[in-house]
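Technical annex B. To support the medicinal chemistry partners, we prepared a structural model of the target in complex with heme C, based solely on the information shown next.
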Amino acid sequence: MAMVNNPPLGLPEVPQPEHNRLTRDRIALGRKLFYDRRLSLNDTFSCAMCHIPEQGFTSNELATAVGIEGRSVRRNTPTLYNAAYSKRLFHDGREFMLEQQIWGPLLAKNEMGMPSVGFVINKIAGLDDYQGLFEKAYGEPVSMLTLGRALASYQRTLVSADSAFDRWYYGKDPSALSSSAQKGYQLFVGRAGCSSCHLLNQGYALFTDDQLHNTGIGYRESMAKNSTSEKVQLAPGVFVDVDTDIIRRVGKQPMADVGLYEITEDPNDRWKYKTPGLRNVALTAPYMHNGSIGDLMGVVDFYDGGGVSNELLDPRIHPLGLTAEEKRNLVDFLKSLTGSNVGVLVSDAFAAPIGDTGASYQNDDTDNRTREAAHVH
Ligand code: HEC
Ligand code: HEC
């Protein structure tokens, strides 16, 4: 709450919609919901099991997410740090408000697997430990609106900045940033051209333009899908190459992903994805919409090589000719974007109660339950 009213150095004020101003009750309710596995069809999956607090509110071990009953999701879980500021949500930018975004994961068969909006509302309305909480926070019972508002309220508290970079750049402390990271910053806004998409503003930086661009990652994946074998994930981190003809015969189509085109059906929008903000990027590996790059040096190498060439590649992506030292400088700069308050936000997450089937849990063991829930995925 304090962080929302007084955002850390380097961030602007947290946007709050008129109908969903932040209050303690709303945040507490949203937090309870976010960690509650009963929001999934078979009581196994909470939001936090993909957006894992101590893994940068993403899943560090999975390139692409795994949902209810081990079903695979085609994209990488984005971090929720600073999602409060996003004007477009999801890698293809198809949603705009945190209040509405929740129906994506709740109703997806391969994420939380709930059959319908009404089913979700009825289920929560029937849980003893939620009695009175929506009324207290919103003056009305759980509904499509109040559920979205509560979850959005908790997520709006996950603001994180006051990094070494912020203390150097906005705080004007010359000793806050290593000289290598300072050189990296010069490259980022200069010759490497990163800041034309990952924007910095006067007084704050979100490191995104909230636009979608083609850097070639999606193109590369589409081409790989057209080949005769495909990597299939058997378990978290376990992949096998499978002949795609066999996959077709058993009825599972390879999952195509063409980015913004899926929303607009404009062929020029093929393989465009949202520019992610880069705060806390050292904590949120693996990278890109499909998790295809494992570490920050890999990302810098990707840009240095000019992305993946295709007829719709953004003209700002081209070979950079960086030296090995310059690449290290850029990586050091990216690593300097870790906020000083991530520890506080993670321990706050561990204090949240976890809903378990039929269990009327005690306050004293909620910590363990949270840990358990956050680790099972
Ligand atoms: C099975 C794993 C999984 C679960 C469970 C899950 N998410 Fe996600 N989340 C994802 C993935 C993957 C994406 C990106 C999907 C896409 O772009 O199509 C995403 C995207 C998002 C985004 C958009 C972030 C951005 O920067 O664009 C938000 C916000 C979000 N999830 C919140 C939630 C909330 C709230 C819940 C619980 C109601 C939840 N998620 C449950 C995996 C999950
Ligand atoms: C044309 C706009 C553009 C430029 C220029 C650009 N980026 Fe990006 N960046 C993107 C987009 C779009 C993505 C997401 C691509 C995807 O998901 O497939 C991205 C992803 C990333 C990621 C991964 C973040 C994550 O959470 O997955 C990092 C790190 C990154 N860029 C750093 C850089 C650096 C460093 C430079 C300069 C060398 C740079 N970018 C230049 C648009 C750009």
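Notes passed to the chemistry partners:
Residues 278 and 323 are 22 Å apart (CA to CA).
The chain has a mean pLDDT of 89.
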